[in-house]
Amino acid sequence: MKNFKYLLFTIVLIINTSCEKDFLELSPEGNLNTGNYYKNTQDFQQALVGAYVPLRDVSNIAFFMDEMRSDNSEYDYNPKDRGGLGFEQLADFLDDSQNGVISQRYLACYNGISRTNVILDKLEKINFSMTDADKNQIIGEAKALRAHYYFDLVRHFGKVPLHIHEVLDKENAYLPQSSVEEIYTQIINDFTDALDKVSLPKFPQGTGRITKGMVASELALVYMSLKQYDKSVPLLDSVTKMGYGLWANYGDAFKNENQNKMESVFEVQYKDGTDGQSSNFIYRFIPIGNTTNILGINYNNTLGGWNVPTPDLIESYEIGDKRLDASIGVIEGTINASSNFVASRIVSSVNYVPNPSVAYKYFIRKYYHPPYLLANNTKENWPVIRYSNVLLMLAESLNESGQSPVALPYLNQVRTRAGLANVTTTVQSELRDIIAKERRIELAFENSRWLDLVRTNQAIPVLTQFGIKQKAKYGYMLPSAYTITENRYIYAIPFREMTINPKLIQNNGY
Amino acid sequence: MKKLLQQHRVSLFLIKALVLYLGFCTQAIAQQIVQGKVLDEKKEPLLGVNVLVKGTNIGTNTLADGSYKIEVANNSTLEFSFLGFATKQVSVNGQSILNIVLQSDNKVLDEVIVVSYGSQTKKKVLGSVQTVNNKDLKDVPGAEIGQKLQGRVAGLQINQANGRPGQGMAFRIRGAASLGSGNQPLVVVDGQPITGDLNLISSDDIESFSVLKDASASALYGSRAANGVILIVTKKAKSGSTNVSFNTYTGIQTVLDRGKPDLMNANEFATFQKGFYEDKIKYENWKYPKTGLAEIPDDYKNPENYGKGTDWYNALLRSAPITNYSLNISTGTEKVLSSNTLTYFKQEGVLVNTEMSRISFRSNNEYNPSKSLKVGFNIAPTYQMDYNTTAALDAVTGRPIIVGAEISSPLVPVVNPDGTYPKPISYGTYPLPNFYEQLNILNLKNNIFRMLGNAFVEIKILDGLKIKSSYNTDLGFTDSNVFRPSTYGFFGTPGPTIPSASHNSNNYVSWLIENMLTYNKKINSHTFDFLIGHSAQKYERNYRNINGSNFANDDIPWIVGAATTTGTTNKNAYAIESLFSRLNYDFKGKYIFSASMRRDGSSRFGLNKKYGIFPSASAGWIASEESFFPKSENFSLLKLKAGFGVTGNNNIGDYTQTTTLGSTNYVFSGALVPGLSINNLGNPDLTWETSKQLDLGLELSLFKSRISILYDYYDKRTDGMLYQISIPFSSGYSSIRYNVGEFKMWGHEFQINTKNLIGDLKWDTNLNLSFLDNKVLSLQDNTPIGGVNKYNDFNRTEVGRRIGELYGYVFDGVYMNQQEFDSQPKHATSAVGTARMKDINGDGKIDGNDRTFLGNSSPKFLFGITNTLSFRNFDFSMTMSGQTGNKIMNVNMQNSQNLDGIFNIEKDMMNRWRSPENPGNGKVPRTLSNTTELYRLGNSNWVFAGDYLTIRNISVGYTLNINSKYLLKSARIYLNANQVYVFTKYPGQNPEVNDTRDSQTTAGQDNGSYPVPRTISIGTNINF
Q: Is residue A2 part of a domain?
């Protein structure tokens, strides 16, 4: 009997300790999950914010692929740390499919595409009411971003998989490549739809969001890439009527206080501080070593030595071009016993005459805006489209469509601000070269040069010549460097993608 | 009694211990000689019978004629024990002649061993279970249990992956492998599956280990048992005795010269660098920036001015002490059993300024208020302090600190004459900090508090029917703080740097409630043993980290002094609820059957797959019990067994089934705007991985049980492997967790125990051998895993091959001359004199597609042998173990063979190609800029056989028998050498190395980790 009581007691105990039904239902408290998200307009607005973020992942590295591969910039060869070899190989045309930068860019673009696909798919299935204004803005910006990322991909990788729906499981993750035409069709459709939906730019102060100005300008560049100038002209013309203008001084366009103002059509947004939103472009562009005498910040910079202006570019500035001083500076210093460059001061590049007893290095001054508060942490935005680019695109489109005289005022608007004389020639081929050179100078270090050379089919002659000079100058450069063929107009599909997805075909020459 | 207490004037806390001695003390302690003969049933004399005074260590052995002679107190009891015979106890009672007849006894195999949720007589165990008693391991010094168990158990592979105090050991049972869910077995301490680090359990607390190898043994642990289970039983008091024992050892650890890197000395380095710049001038039109002339940099102009210079590797090493103290007091009466152990352990590391120490306590108490009721309370708190020994030390921005040191310039001294630390940089070398300085100023404290506790009540309801209910907790708190002053530098930024500090901490609680009902019944020749139980376990962990930077100075080492502070907190949790049941049945003790079943529900599994069922069944036949089996002492046991079971691996992360969003903030109008994006693509079908294992076994006992042999064959198929499969970036994600792929693991295991000599000189041998192998049967879309990235991706797992084989280029010499260069496949960066890799795919060019499989990273044969000898009061034991069949990739050679003139490198690099006239040995390429990278990508040059034989441990002890009239009962002193010597052709420091530890898909890499020392120690065990 006594034992029976024990039994009863134990049974009660077991019952008491048995589990609640939801004992095994645990969700991560530190993360939202898709089950409890996308439930109201604010959720979609936040998802849209997330789709902008990969723009940064691209602009943080794009200069290696878009500027340093061209004749505008080179690199400071660092014999002590060969960890940057992958960056150098992009400049020297020795890059292969295992290059880390191309893989990062590829992933960043698809991150952005996937985030826009999630928004666009989920928005079709909402069961709450959203105002038309909100809907237009969210769909418009999402589509413009998707088109922007695909435009980036198609120009750098050619044929890529075309995902336009959210990937929910692995079964839908393996797409084959679509043709370049199909991708362009998607880009044009997305931009065209976005153009109707997004807001007009605001002046004097914009927000950094996508506007009709950005969509029209980039869509025009898409058409220019396809040589459909009849379509690019009206788009660019519409942008000139939106309220944009040029700052009186070229250098003002890049100042931190002028971010998202009248000359800015689209820029990638950053801010300094400890909330993880900062940029650090200037650290990439100045020499390695202590930054005290350059930035006023005591910091041992190991990121630098990249995207260094070439003498070739400096020589191409016309005399009196005010843009030289704003674009390129000189850092003077000494070489210490271990052959490290030790910076001492910054001087102007205008009429700079090297002193044999002083070591010096060129650097991009456009993104140099002291004072700085924190090490390796700046508020510098990255310009994607400036209004002067729109003017030059318009001039080019008009010239290419046989309206050379009409092109001149747009070109000269840019030249006047630079302190240069008007161009008067209306000979199409002459004007073509002048506009191309103007783009090189005006948009130097804004990731335009390489893509312009490819778009206008000038990359092989221009860079082969440039390569001969480089190889003669630098003993460390391999004879096989600067072997440029049309295959090199696009980069390799990343090795990882090729390994994982058997449906992919590698680009020729890689 | 009072009087006695006064007489002895002992301090109060020893009263308990004293009670036992009263028996000796109250009588006149008269000593006398007892002698006699010990015979078997056939009146044959028995040699080597152990004669022991009960409750002491005093004893002797019988001689060839069976005679013995011993001096004892006249009220003692003598205990006669001999293998294969029943132990007999006889009271002396003043007799001086005691002739004894021992009855032969086949109950040797009635030894009870611990199994899943209970214990069983060894004879009836059907699973593959092997038990090791901790007393056989107690001499081995070390912070980790794994160090003691190395080489002891067939099929239990324990490797010391590195020498960091307290953190180097990695376990694998039967070559267990998973794609991404780890290899480590489940550890169960006194019935409680623990969640934290096994090594926080002091080995002095442990009574025994049971290693459950096959699925029929471990299936009761269900979804956690796929990698095998180690059951640990802690020390309990024994009824009727009181014991106080004190154990201590102290030793010194040193790193052997074998395996130290063979790098250039100062003279050689300067010579190499001189040639390096000669070639630069010759081929690259190089100018010395200081003068603008084509001349050799000052540092290397006159190599003859340098002698040996600095050996940076040795500069970081020291001889370091290791110490352990442990005190155990246990007492047992009919009503109370209590055992308390207090242990203090301290080990300084062989790298300067590294250290760990641990203080641990365990109290195990059991009360038996009535015959049908048993109540227990056990508690074991531990506090461990790691100083500069955590993983961060081993990988200072990618490279272990010792690697950073060894490649520093030998031209620079460790310390300047004025006491300052120079930067180890010569002309053109990489900006490295002075790693000796770094180690000395590093202040990384990792403190862990951990407590295991449980309480249980066991009620006997009817004869054979018991209910046990237990309540267990495992809780821990880890607090890690590091401060890096301005003098602290990094690889590439030697300092001064901006001071920074970080704090990481977490606290977890895991509770487990378990209720079990057991029923034993014997009906005639049928024996039943039934178990049913329910358990619920929940684990919750809060964690946080704070980072501080921009300290104004080096004076405040806490984050409060930082100008910039960032931090987060978060939590994770999981829960498991299970039902389990087992039935054991045997008929006449010769036909044995067992079946078990567990049903696990887990919060980790996807919504569509919440519950899993894990069954097992086994059968055994003890043929030697059959009447037709010839009865012979020389063949006393023949047992055949077969078992099959299903187990799971639930190490899949806590929330991987859920698609989650992470913050992806951006800036509009110059201000932060919150954004959210999907950061983890979930999978609602996600579930445990399943292992199905078949085990066939044979047990033999021969020659009066002097030889026992256990043989097992196993075949294990693991499928539905949980893996973060890489999916194309074009999906917007890089991976998704899936249950994919199937592995096969199989092997043969032998465990052979022999008693080679008995008698005065006793010699036992324990030999274990395991042959094992594995194969990948399928993978997701048969896409290989790994071997994708250019750098640091040295393994590939591919269908039809072994798991995690080493992968890279095949080095094929150098292009010796223009003709070779012109006629052979080339890389984009190739030139005459550069490294030539094999064109594996035959497309005429060398690129990432020419990498191939370079060797198996898993051993195919493991062995261990322990010899134990004793002669009168001396004892000796030696353990050796090793493995063969695996390859190691010394990935540290990307540093030690770097031809960029930036590191100190291997001596052999002198023989590089310099010109067609001076082409070197044909194995080392030239130093031409932009051509050297290919040579430092993973290649066959770095791959070596990983075979080794290590003399693990040698111990020699001497036991002093002390007359029982003193407080001291016995004392033993011993000398121990651990990790005595490693025989291997592997040129690196440690052939057991495995940098990635618990990941078989990236196994076999040596990145130059913390060296493993030899330890020489002296110790004593004292019983009061």
A: no
